[in-house]
Design goal:
Layout (H helix, E strand, L loop, with lengths): L2 H15 L3 E4 L14 E5 L2 E10 L3 E4 L1 H11 L6 E9 L6 E3 L5 E2 L5 E4 L7 E2 H5 L5 H8 L1
Parallel strand pairs: 3-5
Antiparallel strand pairs: 1-2, 2-3, 4-8, 5-6, 6-9, 7-8
């Protein structure tokens, strides 16, 4: 098990401990051709699909194909869905929830998450607070 898997499990525990249903389905390394998120979070009336990233640098990349797969997963559900990224930078103790439109795009279409931009991201702890209003986050991502 790699450190990324450890961080993914840690994020899943945080989500579960906050009272939301979560499914961890890591598919890194191309282990499957199925369109599935690393973490799927169920709330009463919607599903959130997340690509999870952890890295040893101040910049993390999410490939466009990974986000396309999240949209493919979301298209198979019968409830409103939203996709995003959960990132944790090396040396940081927080996870961040990032909307696709908050990430820079590279010329090849990858999503670029930068540690110094984390002030504009929502911490996972804040996102999990009942008073945060995930409806707003969902609306921004629909």
């Amino acid at each position: 098990m790699g450190k990324g898997s450890d961080k993914e499990r840690e994020a899943a525990r945080m989500i579960h401990d906050a009272g939301l249903s979560v499914m961890r389905s890591p598919s890194s390394g191309g282990g499957t051709k199925r369109e599935q998120p690393d973490l799927a979070v169920w709330e009463t009336e919607r599903v959130y699909a997340f690509e999870s990233k952890y890295g040893s640098s101040d910049v993390l990349y999410v490939q466009d194909e990974e986000m396309v797969a999240l949209r493919g997963f979301n298209s198979t559900t019968s409830v409103p869905t939203a996709e995003g990224m959960i990132a944790r930078f090396k040396g940081d103790t927080s996870f961040y929830v990032v909307l696709p439109n908050q990430a820079d795009r590279t010329p090849s279409g990858s999503y670029r998450l930068v540690k110094e931009d984390r002030g504009g991201y929502v911490s996972l702890s804040e996102w999990l607070e009942p008073t945060f209003g995930r409806e707003w986050w969902y609306e921004e991502n629909s």
